[in-house]
Amino acid sequence: MSDAMIEVRNLTMRFGGLTALDNLQLDIHRGEVLGLLGPNGSGKTTFFNVLTGLYKASAGTILYDGEEVIGKTPQDIYRSGVARTFQRSRLSLPLTVFDNIVIGDYQHMGHGLVFNLFRRRAFRAEYERYVEAVRELLAIFSPPLVGRLFEPVETFTMIDRRRIEVCRALMSRPRLLLLDEPSAGMTHDETHELMDDILQVRSKMSDLSVVLIEHEMNVIERITDRCIVLNYGKKIAEGTYAEITADPDVQTAYLGEEAA
Ligand SMILES: Nc1ncnc2c1ncn2[C@@H]1O[C@H](COP(=O)(O)OP(=O)(O)OP(=O)(O)O)[C@@H](O)[C@H]1O
Ligand SMILES: [Mg+2]
């Protein structure tokens, strides 16, 4: 079997006259941490949205273990092992850590929590299974959160909220985790702590592939195995951190943004 878990070929996504992804070709390898870089508006989030089934590509293919992803529902893709976090937090602040993690998973799994409320014994057993599963996950990802499972999210710091979102994505035990700017709004130190956690998860879940959209270059340098740079929806560079930062096209793309 090839190294590539995901193979993206000729992928194009148009919104009216705007081409957000332009004939994109890339692979995501098993077990790697891949950095996805590019100036604002270069198509990074759009790529996640197409890969997770939120948007249907205008053209091209995405193979996941050789099987076409485009045309599948977001639920099917989630169930097949692709999970994500969003650029803007999607936590419900008044609800507890547990509720947020479980509701996220239930929504994607598509079996209704309300329906189960009418089957109280089944619900009880399922509820306890969930509590156990959430505790296990938090114990790996963020042990201090285990004791605060039933506290509302609004009482947590920014970094803990981000940890909760990552845990929610991990509930499905994904094979591919997509993180959209997890460091947004955090301090330098918090960002590095969160990256430590992500490296920790990866060491415990050795098959897990991670795609990280991130603007902070020192984070990219520290945790990625490989990087891909987008500009105007096209791949302009691919390689190690050292390779892509030395690339003149990448330098121009970022300088162009600063000048603008
Ligand atoms: N649903 C949509 N409808 C119309 N245009 C969209 C939509 N989603 C994204 N776009 C456009 O597609 C382009 C790529 O946007 P995208 O959000 O993928 O960029 P990005 O690389 O994630 O940027 P950022 O770093 O700012 O998050 C932008 O020009 C954006 O305005
Ligand atoms: Mg984005």
From TrEMBL:
It comes from Cupriavidus agavae. This is Amino acid/amide ABC transporter ATP-binding protein 1 (HAAT family). It comes from the Bacteria. GO terms for molecular function: ATP binding; ATP hydrolysis activity; L-isoleucine transmembrane transporter activity; L-phenylalanine transmembrane transporter activity; L-valine transmembrane transporter activity. Keywords: ATP-binding, Cell inner membrane, Cell membrane, Membrane, Nucleotide-binding, Transport. GO terms for cellular component: plasma membrane. PROSITE patterns: ABC_TRANSPORTER_2. Residues 6-257 form the ABC transporter domain. InterPro entries: AAA+_ATPase (IPR003593), ABC_AA/LPS_Transport (IPR051120), ABC_transporter-like_ATP-bd (IPR003439), BCA_ABC_TP_C (IPR032823), P-loop_NTPase (IPR027417). GO terms for biological process: D-alanine transmembrane transport; L-alanine transport; L-isoleucine import across plasma membrane; L-valine import across plasma membrane.
